[in-house]
Amino acid sequence: xxxxxxKVTVLGTGVLGSQIAFQTAYHGFDVTAYDISxxxxxxxxxxxAGLTKxxxxxxxxxxxxxxxxxxxxxxxxxxxxxxxxxxxxxxEAVPEVLSIKRDLYGKLAALAPERTVFxxxxxxxxxxxxxxxxxxxxxxxxxxxANQVWKFNTAEVMGTExxxxxxxxxxxxFAKAIGMVPIELHxxxxxxxxxxxxxxxLNSGIALAAGGYAEPAAVDETWRIATGAPMGPFQILDIVGxxxxxxxxxxxxxxxxxxxxxxxQNYIDKGKLGAGSGEGFYRYDK
Length: 286
Ligand code: NAD
Fold this sequence. Notes:
Layout: E1 7-11, H1 15-26, E2 30-34, H2 38-58, H3 64-73, E3 75-77, H4 80-85, E4 89-92, H5 98-111, E5 117-120, E6 140-145, E7 154-159, H6 165-177, E8 181-185, H7 194-210, H8 216-227, H9 233-240, H10 243-250, H11 254-266
Parallel strand pairs: 1-2, 1-4, 2-3, 4-5, 5-6, 7-8
Antiparallel strand pairs: 6-7
Helix pairs in contact: 1-2, 2-3, 7-9, 7-11, 10-11
Bound molecules: nicotinamide-adenine-dinucleotide (NAD).
C-alpha cells in the first residue's frame, strides 16, 4: 500500500524545527508546530517572520504574499494531544538530549494514531537509540535536514533494521515534495553521509593549523585552488560557528582534546566564535 502524508506536525520550533515547519507549509502541506511554552511559541512566531524575509531574499518566486500566507497557515500549539492527534507524519526537532527525546516519544506513542509515521531530525543520535520508545518500530526513521533548509536542501533518510521499506519510500517522496534532495542511507551511520565526510575534513584542517604546519588561510587556499571547491575548512568552520566543533572535539580522544584546547585558547576565549560573532578565523562585517 502506498503511504502518503497530508497533515504534518513538527515538534520543537527552534532553529531547525521552525525551518522544517515553514518549508513544509510553503510546499502546501497542512502543518502544525508544537513547542512546550508560550515563550517558545512566541519565539516560533518571530522565527517564522524571519523566515518570510529569508525566503523572499533567497527563493525564486517567494513573494511577500506567499511567504506571509505560509507563516499564517502554520497552526501553533503547546498541546501535544492536539499536535499528535491527526498527524500523518510527525517530524521531531527537539533538543539533542536523549532523555528529552525518549520521554517525548513515550508520550507520543500513546497520543498519535497508529498509522502516524515518526521521523527524528537528530544529528548525532541514532534512530535505534530511540526506537523502543516510539511504539511503532516499523514506522520510525531519521529524516535529517541541514541548517537553512531552503538553501542547503539535503534531507538524509536513515531507518533502523525495523523500518518498513514502504515507510522509508514514503518519507523519501515527502522529502522531494517539500523541495529537498533526499539522500538515502541503507543502514544506520552516526553522522549520516554529510557529517561522516565533513567532520573528519574539518578536524584535519584544524590539526594542520594547530600543529603549526600551515596557517588557516593557507589551508583554505590549498583546498580551493587544488580542488575547485568554493570554501576551505576554516571558511566552513566560521559559518558553522566554533562552539559546536569545540564541543565535538572535547568529547573525543586525546588528540581531539588537544585540538579543542587549541581552538579554545586561540579563538573561543578571545571571543572569536565565527562569522556570527564578527570574527573567527577571518573577520566579517557585522
Ligand atoms: P533548538 O534548541 O534551536 O530548538 C529546540 C526546540 O525544542 C526549542 O524550541 C525548545 O523549546 C523545544 N523543546 C524543548 N523541549 C521540548 C519538548 N519536550 N518537546 C517539544 N519541544 C521541546 O535546537 P535545534 O538546533 O533546532 O535542534 C533540534 C534538533 O535538530 C536536534 O536533534 C539537532 O540535533 C537537530 N539538528 C540541528 C541542526 C542545527 O544546525 N541546529 C541541524 C540538523 C539537525
